[in-house]
Amino acid sequence: MGFYILSQGAIRKKYIHVVPVSLTASICDTFLILAAVLGVSALVTTLEWLKLILIVGGGIFLFYMGIQSWRASTQPSNDVLANHTIGKTVAFTVMISVLNPHAILDTVGVIGTSSIQYTGWDKIAFTASSVTVSWIWFFGLALAGRLLGLRESRAN
Question: Of 56, 63, 128, 137, which has the maximum CB count within 10 A?
Answer without folding.
Answer: 137
